[in-house]
Amino acid sequence: MRSDNRLSRMLHVLIHMDQQDKPLTSDDIALMLNTNPVVVRRTMAGLKEHGCVHSVKGHRGGWTLIKPLEDISLLDVYQAIGEPPVFSLGFAEDHPQCLVEQAVNTSLTRTLQNARDLLMADFARITLRSLAHDFEKRMEQISAAHGA
Question: Which SUPFAM superfamilies match (predicted)?
């Protein structure tokens, strides 16, 4: 099963956008992500609907952040990209009358929902500013190592 990396990729893009002093075009972002500009526009549309970014068409147009990074959580971005499944585990449903299958599926459903609830709570707590801060610390460490 192929993993869905849209969340990671969009977090990456949004932090880069914050560091730019000009809009990023869909072509710029597509080059950054090694994908097609149409895919970028489709994904960015969700972020636009959620009030994270704005787009301007034409010459000197592109995508810009309209919220500061501290006001954008991982949950915001996750929701903007359509809330893809976070777990790939499935349920056996070959024998719905089987009491063992029912017990297993009930337990798995409850456990996976609890895990998803915890994950969403973390997503809501973590802001893009905290990710950008982590990036900045890593850059400082590299600079210090090269300057020493």
Answer: Winged helix' DNA-binding domain
Closest of 89, 75, 72 to residue 117, by C-alpha: 75
pTM above 0.70, yes or no: yes
In tens, the pLDDT along 71-118 reads 999 999 999 999 999 988 888 889 999 999 999 999 999 999 999 999
Residues 17-57 pLDDT 10s? 999 999 999 999 999 999 999 999 999 999 999 999 999 99
State the Rg of the chain over Cα. 20
Tokens of 46: 């969700």
Chosen CATH of 6-147 out of 3.40.50.300, 2.40.420.20, 1.10.10.10, 2.30.30.30: 1.10.10.10
